[in-house]
Amino acid sequence: MTRHARNCTAGAVYTYHEKKKDAETSGYGTNHRRIGKDSVKSFDCCSLSLQPCLNPVITKDGYLFDKESILQYIITKKNEYSRKLKEYERQKRMEDSEVADNNAAEEQKKLQRFINTEHNIVGSLLNQPGTSSSVSAISNMTNGKEKELPSFWVPSQTPAAKINKSEKPDPTILCPVSGKPLKAKDLIDVKFTLVKDPDDKKSLIVKDNRYMCAVTHDILSNSVPCVVLRPTGDVVTLECYEKLIKKDMLHPLNNQKLKEKDIIFMERGGTGYSTTNESLEGKEKRPALQV
């Protein structure tokens, strides 16, 4: 049956278009929406705290952090490594002690088997006609079996109470964003150039235009690619680097010779909610609309 009007309800088939329209109006299904600027980290904010940096530092991969936040992160990871290492060493000692006990028990078994063999030889001689013998009591706790049979009424002796074997922890501290090795000595101090506007009396945090290029004085924002000059920590725009610095590789402020490793490209935008400048789109999953 074909439809003859926009709001026809006589159709026998629930079409995909109708289902999609009803899902949007009823609140069911998955919503795709472009993330607004309020959801994206500003270029001068810490990648951990997501707040404006008081003492900005940058990694060689271009991720900006506040010095206090990243050092606290490194200290926390070091303490975590120390705790895991102590736990690993404790379990290692327990395993070594268990191996020693097992070896001692094995030696005891060999000795007991030898004694039993000697007793059997003597017993066979005593069992001959004209000799008397004594029968010893039978017990399941003899011959070293008291260490093999677990006490199932004690929770710590049950087979399920075994401690999971832990591996030796890795002392390497990884960057919380890039996942690459990170050391405190590799952090580079960053120096932002403040915008000089005597008429703007607002606080630095609430200002729309806070920083500018150290050379061209262009306003810096999330939409402006930037690079950091490692020797001085000055922040300049990528356009300034391409047009003024890249040709001669000289620092424009002090004429210092620059190398390729002295140019650090700043990563812009991105939070834990969205990927850095790759897919700034959020998905909101809700219950599916059933037919």
Largest sheet: 3 strands, antiparallel
Span of the ends, CA to CA? 19 Å
Describe the oligomeric state of these chains in a short phrase.
single chain
Mean pLDDT: 78
Query: What is the molecular shape?
Result: elongated
Element order: H for helix, E for strand: HEEEHEEEEEHEE
What is the helix fraction of residues, given as a range? 25-40%
Give the low-pLDDT segments: none
| Proportion of strand residues | 5-15%
What is the C-alpha radius of gyration, as a whole number of Å?
37 Å
Secondary-structure content class: alpha+beta
Count the DSSP helices: 3
Strand line-up of the largest beta sheet? 3-2-4
The count of strands amounts to 10
What do you see in this structure?
The longest helix has 60 residues, at 67-126. This protein has three helices and ten strands, in the order H-E-E-E-H-E-E-E-E-E-H-E-E. The chain starts with 15 loop residues before the first helix and ends in a 6-residue tail after the last strand. The chain has helices at 16-26, 67-126, 238-245, and strands at residues 30-34, 56-58, 64-66, 188-189, 193-194, 211-212, 226-229, 234-237, 263-265, 281-285. The chain has a three-stranded antiparallel sheet. Strand 7 and strand 8 (234-237) form a beta hairpin. 27% of the residues lie in helices and 11% in strands. With 291 residues, it is of the alpha+beta class. The mean pLDDT is 78.
